Amino acid sequence: MLRRAQRARGWQARLALAMTALSLAAPHWTPTLAAEGGTIVVRVEETWELVVGTPDSDTSGPQVTCAISPTGNLDGLYSIFTLNHQSHPSFTAGGLQLQVWDGDATLAAKKHPNQGLLATAGETVRWTMKMSLHDGGLVFDVDDGASTTWGNFGTQGHLWASTS
To answer: What range defines the domain where residue 92 resides?
Structure first.
């Protein structure tokens, strides 16, 4: 079961409104004033939790892919995070990978050094995907990850990439 962890309300409603405004903007990421409060959105964070029933190491299942985009689609810049498989430049079972794309063009593909396969029944994997503006570029990052299979991940810089 894949679900987003819920956090404090209030500021999240304003952030959701701002992201909706951004998703309707031009295909390139530009800071946009939100309709409510005049806030400039410079970072979005999504906290995820994956609860694995019974993994299948013969088929490297489950394989999970999460996407994050400043425009709400995959036509321009976006990032994907893969768990229990890596798909770029070719398929590899196990491990974690962060990819940054501009439409059909790959800009970056970063692998975590632990290439293990999910193998623990009932395992819970947690992580936070981040997208932020920094020095005129867009940064994609996976932070605060924790699992039995991969241990703590995301704080060592292996799953981080930026665009100009």
So the answer is: 2-162
